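Contributing: when you submit paired examples, paste them exactly as shown. First protein:
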Amino acid sequence: MFFMQIKYRGDNFSYIIADETTKEAAVVDPSFNADAITRILEKQGLKLKYIINTHGHVDHTAGNLELQERFNAEIVAHKLSKISKQISVEDGDTLKLGKITIKVIHTPGHTPDSICIFADGKLFTGDTLFVGECGRTDLPGGNPREMYTSLFDKILKFDDAVEVYPGHDYGDQPCSTIGKERRTNYTLKERTLEEFIEFMKYP
């Protein structure tokens, strides 16, 4: 699988994944990185099939229309998302890029439409899980109860070796693993639901 992590402007990460045989590609969270993404797609001879948004916040969706217009790709987002999209997905849905299977995991908490994307041992976590942190739940649509379920009942069910690729460069490194986050991320410390809700309150 072709894979690249991109941070061109600001602290948002974007990702390109592609089947190296068919050259079909997907971009996860174009953000403000559309220029850099375009250069890489064209240099590698990749055919952009999907633009996948982990949630609808503008810092993740900013490059959607630019890439769609240039490459005639389809925008993919959770069915609850209010952004303009061609493909609505929900928990457990899959997308195909050649022989690559992309699995959708609905992980609300930061927003109702938040999803994580799993492909070839890599988990793209958007603003649900960062390196050393988790997403905020005090913004409109945020819900600490749902975040607890998303983190502990979904994300932490993945094997320790799974690689974690977040939506922002907030940690001490640009990526991690489930095992490392389980051991070192203070937001993933074992807590009851009630303790987690109290922990997530902002001053």
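Second protein:
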Amino acid sequence: MKTISTTIRRTLAIVALTGVAMSAAQAETTLLNASYDVAREFYKDYNPAFVRYWKQKSGQDVLINQSHDGSSKQARSVADGLEADVVTMNSANDIDFLASRSAVSPDWSKRFPNNASPTYSTMLFLVRKGNPKGIKDWNDLARPGVQVVIVNPKTGGNGRYSYMGAWGYAKKKGMSDAQASAFLGSVFRNVPVLDTGGRGATTTFLQRGIGDVLVTFESEVVQVDREFGAGKVDAVYPSISVLCENPVAVIDRVTQKKGTTALANAYLDYLYSDEGQEIAVRHYLRPRSQKVAAAHSLTFKPIELFTVDEMFGSWKEAQARHFDDGGEFDRIYAAIGKR
């Protein structure tokens, strides 16, 4: 009887320890979201909402970790081994790059609605209070005596969209490619420093006091007001701008190894939910949901937008022609003596 009792006690102890280990493993389930620079505040609000939703749906506790930097730097980090479960970027070519490195599925843009972009934005100008330089449109960025703060198009989607906004404006105004290139040269000649990411550019403009105008995402206006106080800057909408999609993808090679594929897909799916879309609106990201958009019809200023495909053919073509090494941007920057 003593031997049986000892065996039972040992079995119960093993069962108890197994239960503790399973509970600990469940509590320690983590998800890493590698995201672009100026999205950190949005995900600080979104993550707790998803954690509550997932707990209610699955009974599972989950910890969401964040990594933020310029979108292209993030893509390279993930390609080089950063074990992110998901990426939430501001330009499709960064995820295409990850697909070329077999980190995400080649059909990533079809795995979620709206080209796997649950929100979108556009580029506008932040100017000093009162707009002392009278900046109204893209052509004003090329005027002598105007200092322009722009993210480096080689390292951040913010910078590539800024470049494409200016290029698209030039083409819409009837300029030839050569004239558009010269126009971009005049703009970048006015750029005192190229920051690697959107948040760095905002710091340069607001904290360091450099520049007359900051070209950035519409969503950055709210964060500037929150961080630096309302009334520090004015937002100027150009006559036309580029539609900036915010694409997302699951990093299959990571989630398959960690066993987090279902969780990662649910995390990105929830961005399309009413709650996810409402949180996006609070951070001045334009929602895809027609219902949510209708409820906030007065929040976002109407603006003529062109798409990357319309103006450049595709992200792949834009990247190869304008932003790859030796591309149009490198030639423009070299021609103005800055490289």
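If you have annotations for the second protein, write them as plain sentences, like these:
The two ends are 86 Å apart (CA to CA).
Residues 2-27 form the longest helix (26 residues).
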